[in-house]
Amino acid sequence: MQANTAAQQLLEQTFGYSAFRGEQEAIVNHVVDGGDALVLMPTGGGKSLCYQIPSLLRPGVGIVVSPLIALMQDQVDALRQLGIQAAFLNSSLDADTARHVYQALMRGELKVLYVAPERLMTPSFLSTLHDIQQRFGIALFAIDEAHCVSQWGHDFRPEYRQLTVLHEEFPEVPRIALTATADTPTRNEIVERLGLEHARQFISSFDRPNIRYRVALKNNARKQLLGFLESEHPNDAGIIYCLSRRKVEETAAWLKEQGWDALPYHAGLDATVRQANQQRFLREEGIIMVATVAFGMGIDKPNVRFVVHLDLPKSMEGYYQETGRAGRDGLDADAWMVYGLGDVVNMRQLLDGSDTPEERKRLERQKLDALLGFCESTACRHQAILRYFGEQHPGNCGQCDNCLSPVDTWNGTEAARMALSCVFRSGQRFGAGHLIDILLGKTTEQIKRFNHQSLSTFGIGKALNQAQWSSVFRQLVASGLLSTDMEGYGGLRLTEEARPLLRGETEIWLRSDPPDVRASSSKAERASRSREAYNEVQDDPLWLALKAKRLELAREQEVPPYVIFHDSTLLEILNQKPGSLPEMGRISGIGAAKLARYGDAFLEVLEEYAH
């Protein structure tokens, strides 16, 4: 009970929160008592508190292993704001700064130290840790982004395989492995590779109820994107993901031409440009980052209000992790994606043309198929995501396109048989465009060249138009009845799963695509009260003044604005309008150190606008 009380006091007085969330309290108490833990918790769920509080309560220093330089910097900035002695060691530090960190460590002055796995595994650093253990103690080892240990995961880091040495050399020190995305095979591999067979597993819900998921068909993607940004996020920070570096740069340049503050980010950019763009995104308001998936791991910016995918991600895990970078502060955020059949073909071509072993290709194909199934689904998006991660959800979330504007379905059995028959009779080597021309009875040059006007399927599909047939083919690919033949230059061919439908043994229901798939801002899509509350304050002079004060303080200290206060804390200040420091101290996210440091400054702003 004593540890429980001490943890609660720390949570309130240092971190400024009145209560733990979900499994946090159980995890903290388990690790404080010396137990090992595997923690699966969604992005924004509060994983860092699960090792930060035990590091403060146990004797010695907490060692946090992280592969993410940006995250280390953010976390250390945030801890120092709370008056906690924290530091990091990674390749971004010059020799002088690294030496000062080592000296502070050797004097027992640090309570939390973030370290890159490459540095941790060096014999000299392990020797230093043994010395620290004898003199001051090691509170715990936290292994963040633990999915990096999995060779089947989306972010494999070979150095993570060596981290079993921590248990071998420091058997008395508790270990806590944490990740936001791990399906069952990845979870099992984390346990096996890190020797966590006896660790207690804490699996939180993967649901992010504040994220609104929407998936639309590509129909002039740039126009759709512009409609989405203008109607819903005119001044917000967000991330736009593209598949290729070229598309990243072209999209960022085009957005700048349209008057948006957009920056590119991909691994091919000069390192100094990449770093400068990332710093601007973290430290300024309303920046849009256009990026490949190289961007985002370890980005701790809580007020990202939207994540856009202009191309399909590779898997549900990738989609979940990337969209999870939105709304980490708990306020409403959007995950908005557009895709088309061309995306599916491109992804499969990239996969099939790679040097990846066949076993891995097969797994990646299954992951891509699961993502396509999600895109084409008529069911609740939150329910579909959770089902993928082995969790139940009742559906009817009120926070996705399918629940807000239910999709009509139609019996597509006859149309599907026409399409499949056309694929078969034309030799299983043509793409959807040519097949649709056959079904519509068009006499194009290509149809004449191959004499396809003589096929029995020529002209039999005139009851549907070009867009409707495109939808049929896309859904047949998504449901696995058609696949792309890489040796046939991306032509479509039948799979075994198509046989029962062709034989008349089964039927298929397809989603009816809306007549206009441009971004919508209907009343139904603005149903959330918290979203409305956030949107309503955007032009409030007091809200703008509070944000301006936060930015001024952040620039003085050279930290991102959210390190001072999250948007959710500012929103509470705006709504509560505290008139004294004790009243200010009751607001969530304002602990003793932040109250002493910033309380008066924000009270002055409130007083100025009270008259």
Would you give an account of this structure?
By secondary structure, this protein is α/β, with parallel strands linked by helices. It folds into 4 domains: 2-203, Rossmann fold, CATH 3.40.50.300; 211-404, 3-Layer(aba) Sandwich (Rossmann fold); 409-511, Arc Repressor Mutant, subunit A (Orthogonal Bundle); 540-608, DNA polymerase, domain 1. It has 28 helices and 17 strands. The strands form 4 sheets. Strands 3-4-2-5-6-1-7 form a 7-stranded parallel beta sheet, with helices on both faces. Strands 8-13-12-9-11-10 form a 6-stranded parallel beta sheet. Helix 13 links the parallel strand 12 and strand 13 (333-339). The radius of gyration is 27 Å and the shape is globular. Residues 515-530 have low confidence and may be disordered.
Topology of this structure?
Elements: H1 2-15, H2 24-32, E1 37-40, H3 47-57, E2 61-65, H4 69-81, E3 86-89, H5 95-106, E4 112-115, H6 117-120, H7 123-135, E5 138-143, H8 165-169, E6 175-179, H9 184-193, E7 200-203, E8 211-217, H10 221-232, E9 237-241, H11 245-257, E10 262-265, H12 271-283, E11 288-291, E12 304-309, H13 316-323, E13 333-339, H14 341-352, H15 358-376, H16 381-388, H17 401-404, E14 409-411, H18 413-425, H19 432-440, H20 445-449, H21 466-478, E15 482-485, E16 491-494, H22 499-502, E17 509-511, H23 529-536, H24 541-557, H25 561-564, H26 567-576, H27 581-585, H28 592-608
Parallel strand pairs: 1-6, 1-7, 2-4, 2-5, 3-4, 5-6, 8-13, 9-11, 9-12, 10-11, 12-13
Antiparallel strand pairs: 14-17, 15-16
